[in-house]
Design goal:
about 0% strand, mainly alpha, about 80 residues
Length: about 80
Amino acid sequence: MVHVTNLLTQLHSELLSGSEHKAVTDDKDMHMFTRLRGIEKKLLLAVVGLGHIDGIELLWKCVEDADDDKFLQATSEKGDPPTG
C-alpha cells in the first residue's frame, strides 16, 4: 500500500521541478510556522497538509531547542507579521 504522504509528494513533484517543489514547500512551511508560532494560546490545533508536517515540526523543534524567539522575529520581518 502506498503511503498517502509519499503519493502526494510524488504528485506535487511531478507538477514542479525538484528545486521549484522544494522552494514552494519550504516557503509555505515557513509561512505557516511563523503564523502558528505567533498565536498566543495555551492549546493550538492546526490542520495542515501532509506534505508540510515534517517541515513545520523541524522549524518548531529548531526554535524550541534554541529557546530563542529571535528566529521568529527575523522571519516575521521578512513576511506577514503573525497574528494572535
